[in-house]
Amino acid sequence: MRPVNLFDYEKLAQERLEPAIWDFYHGGSDDEVTLRECRRAFERIRLRPRVLVDVSTIEMRTTVLGTPVSMPILIAPTAAHGLAHAHGEVATVRAAGQSETLMIVSTTAALGIAEVAAAASGPLWFQLYTHHSLEITGKLVRQAEELGYRAIALTVDIPRLGNRERDLYNKFVLEERTPLPNYPSQDITALERHMIDTWETVDWLRATTKLPILLKGILTAEDALLAIEHKVAGIIVSNHGGRQLDGAIPSIEALPEVVEAVKGRCEVYVDGGIRRGTDILKALALGARAVLIGRPIIWGLAVDGQQGVLRVLEILRNELEMAMALAGRPNLASIDPSLLKL
Length: 342
Ligand SMILES: Cc1cc2nc3c(=O)[nH]c(=O)nc-3n(C[C@H](O)[C@H](O)[C@H](O)COP(=O)(O)O)c2cc1C
Description:
The protein is of the alpha/beta class.
């Protein structure tokens, strides 16, 4: 089967991956309510297309924190690409470069941040989990800065690892399966340092780096306002792909209150359950600057390495292009809340 859409890649990836690895990538926490709702929430949103608009050319180039990208579709940070394909994050980052978009590299990557940067032809952000020692964390942040990463996305929704029962049944322990070179000496306590992050950690990070800071994992107006007080450059509205607090609102439903609270004072991004061009159109209409794609990137990687990731990105680009045309919105500026039936 030649995959036509992202769900085809999902099926093919599941066939190819060892079941425990599939479960690790696929799974959410507890009863996976949030994981399922993330999809349903998109399906509930209705569009109000306009007609007789000249859509002969569709323009979707944009900038993210000042960096140009060819489309408002970025690669979310996800762990251990080496379990999906031998080339791991190198394959992913090459595909990102080919698509002229940006990859957010995870602290939990299977390759070191230098190795990923060396393979990159496009822009990178670094997703940070702080380590047990802030000194070590500071060194990692400075290394990212020196390597040319353009922003730090601190993930804030993981004070403890969510209850991922698929992994418990499978006795799947990530650090037993893959090297995690961005953690010093595979020290398991290193994986736990981020469990004590607070708003002081954000201030520490701001004092440590000149790079713009994004907070990933905000779902409320209250926290969005605090993030503004702590001078972040961006917020990523996310529930960690349904892997942390089960029952947490779908991120697309949290997006409007965050956008409303922020009032343009920082850029707002969203991820979780985005599988179609129309999902992206809906997120943009609700005020997202761009969206992040998590699991589908891994599906592409598992099915066909760099080519697979590239295809996943290009399918999304084509679908967004089509959705914009059919909605009578030929450029990003024309995508606004009037596109939605609320
Ligand atoms: C297998 C897997 C690993 C992840 N690893 C990380 C990570 O290391 N850091 C992080 O901030 N988010 C991580 N996430 C969350 C993603 O960045 C993103 O929020 C989520 O996957 C988006 O939802 P989607 O998979 O439905 O697109 C991970 C998600 C998955 C599925």
